[in-house]
Write a structure and sequence with these properties.
By secondary structure, the chain is α+β, with helices and mostly antiparallel strands. It has 3 domains: 68 residues; 62 residues; 135 residues, 2-Layer Sandwich (Heat Shock Protein 90), CATH 3.30.565.10. It has 6 helices and 7 strands; from the N terminus they run H-H-H-E-H-E-E-H-E-E-H-E-E. Strand 4 and strand 5 form a beta hairpin. Helix 1 runs antiparallel to helix 2, helix 4 packs across helix 5 and helix 5 runs antiparallel to helix 6. The longest helix has 62 residues. Pfam families: HATPase_c. One of its GO terms (biological process) is cellular response to phosphate starvation. Keywords: Kinase, Membrane, Phosphoprotein, Transferase, Transmembrane, Transmembrane helix, Two-component regulatory system. Its EC number is 2.7.13.3.
Length: 283
């Protein structure tokens, strides 16, 4: 337990105990003064409950304010730091693009390509960090985007690693209103898993949409029925020989739950199919 959580729990416990002592004393005073019977019970107890709640809230606000203020300062500091990180990365990327237009030497071009790739990776890390901070403080803005564009964008990311996997996309031009970064990460994780857990001979990934269900199917070994209930748990891996930490599907489930997207798995004769019900985010 970190110090902030410990301080919070200690502060709340002290405030609660202090408020309880005051209420018990007032309760004793009024009972001694007026007695306690069915006629005056509600007139004594209800005001005391309200007074106790008022005392608890009043002391809570004054005592816990410094804790909340420190969180606000930390949040602001992180935002400013991340913003400052974006400036040098964008500068490197812009100057690299300018140099690529003027340099013709093959070795120099390769070096510039590596610099460009590194700057793109840094920019992606920046975007991920910014998104994760916004997600933690629950300030993600929803945006309109087209389902097919996000799917094709995610598929393009795996051109270098899909090898012989055939990816078939049958997605109409559907307008979605949601957290675009979170949705894209969800698609990345599902497509990545579909490629990773595929068969060796003629592997296929099929992405289709039949209103309002988005389905991602891959040929491969069926998910064991007993694992269907835990496949979305953090660190779970049905095949431990595969690369990864077992976090991808946990992140998928977290996003779907937060955005009211029902998700389920069909185990079929030739593979597995993940189904996402998008009815709550279709524009």
């Amino acid at each position: 337990m970190n110090s902030k959580k410990r301080d919070f729990l200690i502060s709340i416990s002290i405030i609660f105990t202090f408020s309880l002592i005051i209420i018990l004393y007032l309760n004793y005073f009024f009972i001694s003064l007026f007695g306690l019977n069915q006629e005056n019970f509600i007139y004594i107890i209800m005001p005391l409950v309200l007074v106790g709640l008022g005392i608890f809230l009043s002391f809570s606000m004054s005592v816990l304010k410094p804790l909340f203020k420190s969180d606000e300062k930390l949040e602001q500091s992180l935002k400013e730091t991340i913003h400052e990180l974006n400036i040098p990365v964008s500068t490197i990327k812009m100057n690299t693009q300018l140099l690529q237009k003027t340099i013709t030497d093959e070795k120099s071009i390769k070096r510039l390509d590596r610099i460009a790739q590194a700057s793109n990776n840094l920019l992606k890390l920046y975007e991920n960090m910014e998104y994760n901070i916004k997600k933690e403080i629950d300030k993600i803005d929803k945006q309109e985007f087209y389902l097919d564009e996000i799917i094709f964008k995610s598929c393009d990311k795996f051109d270098d690693i899909k090898k012989d996997t055939k990816i078939v996309v049958k997605i109409p031009n559907i307008l979605i209103l949601s957290d675009i970064n979170g949705f894209e990460k969800t698609m990345d994780n599902l497509i990545s898993n579909a490629i990773k857990y595929n068969i060796k001979d003629n592997p296929i990934v099929e992405i289709s949409y039949q209103s309002p269900i988005l389905s991602i199917f891959n040929t491969g070994e069926q998910i064991d029925t007993k694992n269907l209930f835990i496949v979305f748990d953090k660190y779970f891996q049905e095949d431990s020989s595969k690369d990864g930490f077992g976090l991808g599907l946990a992140l998928v489930k977290e996003f779907c739950d937060k955005n009211k997207i029902a998700i389920n798995i069909d185990t079929l004769e030739k593979g597995n199919r993940f189904n996402l019900n998008l009815k709550n985010i279709i524009k």
